[in-house]
Design goal:
By secondary structure, the chain is α+β, with helices and mostly antiparallel strands. 42% of the residues lie in helices and 16% in strands. The strands form five sheets. Strands 15-14-18-16-17 form a five-stranded mixed sheet, with helices on both faces. Helix 5 packs across helix 8 and helix 12 (394-402) packs across helix 15 (433-487). The radius of gyration is 35 Å and the shape is globular. It starts with a helix and ends with a helix.
C-alpha cells in the first residue's frame, strides 16, 4: 500500500481531506527578519512536566552547579522525558509554578541562574550512527530528551518500537502566524535532511516525504538541491495545499497517501511515522553532535509586537524576555497565547518559561480578541459539520456534552476530535465548541481511570477471597486426614507415638524456661530482701 502511495505522490497527485478552512496566514511579518539568538536571560524556568502531565523526577538540588546539557531530571514512567540544563549555572529553586501547558497548571519547575559561560557538559556523539541497530538508536534519542516539537510533546523514541514503511516529516505549518518550521528549514537544511535519514534508519523505512505548504517560498528548491548533491535516496519534497488544518497528522496522511487513520488508531496502524521538522533537526544534534534538546525555534508575533521574528531560544527562557526583544507594546497586550490563534492556549503571566513544545508566542490586543457578538444557543445550521476535518458531528457532540451524556459523546467519537477549532471559527452562535470537547475528554479519561481503579480493587478482593477459601479447604482436608488416621488402630497408635515423641522433645526447652523463671524469681526476691534490709538500717540510723 505504501509503495502505491509513493508512486501516487511521485505522479504529482494528492488527495483532499474533508472540510478545512482557508485563513490569512500572517507569516510574512515574522519571516521578514533573520533568525535571532537572544542573550542569556537572568533566569531559566525549566518545566519538568511534558506530554499530557508526565512529570520527570529532579536529580539536582538547590545550590547545585550544573553544566549545559547535564541531566537535571529523569523519567519515572515509559512516557516520561529526560530533562537537561539549557545552560551552565546554579540551581536557584525547585518549586511549583504555572507552566506552558494548555491548563497552565502548577507543575515542578527547576529555576537556573546562568553563569554566563554557557559551558557544555562533555558530549558523546555517535561515530557511526547508521551502523547502530534500531533499538539502540531509539535509546540515544530517548536519552537526548527529544519529543514531538509540533505541539503534542509525544516522546519520539516510542514511535520506533516497531518498523514502519514510510516516514513523513511535517513541515506544513497550516496555522496562522507560526513560521518557526519554515525558518528552520531555510536555516538548517543539512541538519534537517540528516535528521530525516537518521529517523528513516530508526523506523526501518525506505521512503520519506518532507511535506511543505504550497505558500512556502524557496524551501523546496533548497532541500532538493542538497538531496541531489548528496545523493540521498528515498527522500521526496512535496508541497501540499494551504488549507487549515492540513498540518494535522491525520489530515497530512490523508493528503499524501489517500489513507485514513482508523478511529482511535495511530499512524503506525498504517505503517507510517510522522515527525515534525524540529524533531528531525533535534535528532541530528543528538546523534551527530551529542547535544541533547536544550533549545528550539520560537515565533514571537502578534498585532502588538513591533518586530515579529523567530528566536532560537533556550528551553526555560521566560516569555517576557522574548517579548521584550521583539519590542512588544505591553500596554496594549491583552492576551498572550502559546501556539497559534486556532489551537493555542492563553497564559496567565509572562514569567513562564518556554518548553520543548512552545512553537509560538502570540501577543494580541483587545481588539483582536474581542468577540463579534454574544453567546447564543445552537441553531443547528450545520456549518461546523461542513468544516470538520475529522467528519464528526460537532453540534451533536455539543448537545450530548451540554446534557451531561458523556458516554454518548464517546460513542460519537469525541476522542477523534483534533481540537483544531474550525467548528468554533465558523459557528454563528459564538459557541466555544472546542472547550466542550476538551472538558468531555478530560472527564471521560478521569471516569475511565476510576473504573480501572475499581476493577483492580475488585480483582484484588476476589483473589483475597479465593486465597482464604483455598486455605480453609486445605485446613479442612488436613483435619479429615488426621481424623481418618485416628480411626485406624494401627495409624492411631503411630499418631499417639509421634505426639509423645514431640512432647518429649519439647520438655528440655520447657524445663529450661522453668529454670529461667525460677532464677528470675529468686533474683527478684533477693532484691526485695536487700531493699528491706537497707530500709531497716536507715530507720535504725535515724532512731540513733
Amino acid at each position: 500500500m505504501v509503495n502505491e502511495t509513493i508512486s501516487y505522490v511521485e505522479n504529482g497527485k494528492l488527495c483532499q481531506f474533508h472540510g478545512g478552512l482557508i485563513l490569512e496566514h500572517h507569516k510574512c511579518e515574522s519571516m521578514a527578519r533573520p533568525l535571532a539568538r537572544p542573550l542569556l536571560p537572568d533566569y531559566l524556568r525549566v518545566s519538568l512536566r511534558l506530554n499530557r502531565g508526565n512529570v520527570s523526577k529532579p536529580v539536582v538540588d538547590v545550590g547545585d552547579k550544573v553544566l549545559k546539557g547535564q541531566i537535571i531530571a529523569v523519567p519515572d514512567t515509559p512516557r516520561g522525558v529526560y530533562v537537561h540544563a539549557p545552560t551552565s549555572g546554579t540551581v536557584m529553586e525547585i518549586t511549583h509554578r504555572p507552566v506552558a501547558s494548555p491548563d497552565a497548571d502548577l507543575a515542578p519547575v527547576v529555576c537556573i541562574r546562568p553563569d554566563g559561560k554557557d559551558q557544555w557538559t562533555p558530549l558523546e556523539p555517535v561515530e557511526d550512527p547508521f551502523a547502530l541497530d534500531r533499538p539502540t538508536l531509539a535509546q540515544h534519542i530517548r536519552k537526548a530528551g527529544i519529543v514531538g516539537m509540533g505541539g503534542a510533546g509525544f516522546p519520539t523514541h516510542l514511535k520506533y518500537q516497531k518498523p514502519a514503511e514510510l516516514l513523513i516529516i511535517n513541515g506544513a505549518e497550516c496555522e496562522p502566524y507560526i513560521s518557526c518550521d519554515e525558518r528552520l528549514m531555510l536555516d538548517y537544511p543539512h541538519e534537517l535532511l540528516t535528521g530525516t535519514r537518521l529517523l528513516m534508519h530508526a523506523a526501518g523505512a525506505k521512503k520519506a516525504i518532507i511535506a511543505l505548504e504550497d505558500q512556502v517560498g524557496g524551501v523546496r528548491s533548497v532541500l532538493e538541491k542538497i538531496i541531489q548533491e548528496k545523493g540521498y535516496t528515498g527522500i521526496r519534497v512535496v508541497k501540499v495545499p494551504t488549507i487549515y488544518p492540513a498540518g494535522g497528522e491525520k489530515q497530512l496522511i490523508k493528503v499524501l497517501t489517500c489513507q485514513e487513520v482508523p478511529s482511535g488508531g495511530i499512524p503506525m496502524d498504517l505503517g507510517i511515522v510522522v515527525q515534525n521538522t524540529g524533531t528531525a533537526k533535534a535528532v541530528h544534534d543528538a546523534i551527530i553532535l551529542g547535544k541533547p534538546l536544550v533549545d528550539r525555534i520560537v515565533t514571537v508575533t502578534g498585532d502588538v509586537v513591533e518586530e515579529p521574528r523567530n528566536f532560537s531560544a533556550l528551553i526555560g527562557t521566560p516569555f517576557r524576555h522574548l517579548l521584550k526583544l521583539a519590542n512588544t507594546r505591553h500596554e496594549k497586550l491583552h492576551r498572550l497565547v502559546v501556539g497559534g490563534p486556532m489551537m493555542g492556549y492563553a497564559m496567565p503571566e509572562d514569567g513562564i518559561g518556554i518548553d520543548k513544545t512552545s512553537n509560538c508566542l502570540l501577543a494580541l490586543s483587545e481588539e483582536i480578541t474581542r468577540h463579534h457578538g454574544p453567546l447564543m444557543p445552537c441553531i443547528r445550521c450545520g456549518e461546523c459539520v461542513n468544516v470538520c476535518p475529522q467528519e464528526l458531528l460537532p453540534q451533536q457532540l455539543h448537545w450530548y456534552i451540554q446534557g451531561g451524556d458523556l458516554e454518548m459523546a464517546r460513542q460519537h467519537h469525541v476522542f477523534d476530535c483534533i481540537e483544531c477549532g474550525a467548528c468554533a471559527w465558523v459557528c454563528p452562535s459564538q459557541i466555544k465548541l472546542v472547550d466542550y470537547y476538551r472538558y468531555a475528554k478530560a472527564d471521560l479519561r478521569y471516569l475511565d481511570y476510576k473504573k480501572t481503579k475499581a476493577e483492580r480493587s475488585r480483582i484484588r478482593h476476589e483473589r483475597h477471597d479465593r486465597r482464604l477459601e483455598r486455605l480453609k479447604a486445605e485446613r479442612a482436608a488436613r483435619r479429615k486426614r488426621h481424623a481418618r488416621r485416628l480411626r485406624d488402630p494401627e495409624k492411631s497408635s503411630q499418631v499417639i507415638a509421634d505426639t509423645l515423641e514431640r512432647l518429649k522433645a519439647q520438655q528440655p526447652s520447657a524445663a529450661k524456661n522453668d529454670s529461667m523463671k525460677t532464677t528470675s524469681q529468686d533474683k527478684r526476691q533477693a532484691a526485695v530482701a536487700d531493699n528491706g534490709s537497707s530500709n531497716n538500717t536507715g530507720k535504725d540510723n535515724a532512731l540513733t
